[in-house]
Amino acid sequence: MGHWDEVLESFKTFFTKTVVDNYVPLILQFLLLAVIYYYVFKVLKDNKGTKFIAVVVFTILLCGVTFTLTPNFDGYLLLIITIMVALLIFTMFHSEIKRSLLDSNKHSRGGLTVSGVQLIIDETIRAVQNMSKKDIGALIVLSNDNLPEGIIQSGTVVNAAISSQMIEAVFYPKAPLHDGAMVIEGNKIYAAGCFLPVAQNENLPKDMGSRHRAALGITSVASVTAIVVSEETGIISIVKNGAVKKRYADANDLKNALSDYYWSDLTAEGKIK
After folding, report:
1. How many CB atoms neighbour CB 262 within 10 A?
2. For position 32, what pLDDT does the model report?
C-alpha cells in the first residue's frame, strides 16, 4: 500500500469509526473551539493583528491533520499547543483584550438624532478652543458606555446636555471637578471629576503632564478617544489606542475626532437615529 493510500485509509477510518462512535463529544468540542477561536480572531482583527491570524490557522490545521493521520496521536498535545497559542496571544494583545472585554458590556443610554450631532460637535470644539486660548487644563473622554464602573464612581454623575458653557464651567480652575476627567456618552456629559489609570511612560515630552498620562492610560484599556488641553501650554492633543494621535490639534482635527466618534462608533452601536 502506497503512502497516499495509507493517508486515505486513515481519513476513512477517522470519519467512519472515530467520528461515528464519538460524534456527540466531537460536536461539542467543535462548537466550543469555534466560539473560542471566533473571539480570538475578533480581537486580532480589531487590533490589526491579522498577520497573527495566519499563524493560528496554520497551527490549527497542522494539529488537525496530525490528529487525523496519526491514530496514536495524544489529544492532550493539541490542548497544550492551543493553550500555548492562547498565552502568546494574551501576552501580545493583553491591553486589546481588556478593551474588547469592556466593549462587550456596552449598552445604550439613549439615542441621538442626526440633527443634534453637528450642534454637539460645534459646541465641544468651541469649548476646547476657548480653554486652549485661556490655558485651562481639560481632559474629555468620548465613551461608548464601555468604561469600568469604578471610573464613573470615582467622579460625579452629571448627566447634563452638552454645551460649550457647561464644558467650560466644569473645567473652570476654581470648580470642584476641574482636576478630573469629563466623560461624554452620546449626547450627554455623563460624569465629571473622574480619576483615570495613569500610564507610566518615561518618553513623554516634559510639557505633557498628568492629564496626558491619564489619557494614555484609559485609552490603553478601553476603546475610547480622549481630548486633552494642556494647562501649561494650551496645546490640544487627541489620544486614542494608548498613543497621542494628534498633537497641536486644530478645529479640523477636533472635528474629525468627534465625527469619527459620533458617525462611526455610535452609529455602529445603533445609538444615532
Report:
1. 22
2. 74
Cell 461515528 -> residue: 20
- DSSP classification of residue 160: E
Domain that holds residue 19: 3-92
Q: Quick one: 58 and 181 in the same domain?
A: no
Whether 122 and 162 have beta carbons less than 8 Å apart is answered as no
Out of 57, 92, 127, pick the residue that ends a domain: 92
Do 72 and 151 have their domain in common?
Answer: no
Q: Encode pLDDT of 151-200 as tens digits.
A: 999 999 999 999 999 999 999 999 999 999 999 998 899 999 999 988 87
The three-class DSSP label of residue 130 is: helix
Q: Tell me if 117 sits within 8 A of 255, measured CB to CB.
A: no
User: Which of the residue ranges 38-47, 152-161, 216-225, 233-242 would you say has the lowest mean pLDDT?
Assistant: 38-47
Does the pLDDT of residue 15 top 70, yes or no? no
C-alpha cell at 71: 491514530
- Taking the C-alpha atoms of residue 2 and residue 48, their distance in angstroms, rounded to an integer, is 44
E strand residue ranges, 172-252: 181-185, 188-194, 225-229, 236-240, 243-247
Domain annotation covers residue 102: no
Average pLDDT, the chain: 77
Closest CA to 197 of 151, 145, 243, 245: 151
Can you tell me the distance from the alpha carbon of 38 to that of 73, in angstroms, rounded to the nearest whole number?
26
Backbone angles phi, psi at 194, to 5 degrees: -85, 145
Strand bridging mode 138-143 / 181-185: parallel
Q: Is residue 104 part of a domain?
A: no
Do both 131 and 258 map to the same domain?
A: yes
Q: What single-letter amino acid sits at 249?
A: A
- Report how far residue 273's alpha carbon sits from residue 270's, in angstroms, rounded to the nearest whole number: 7
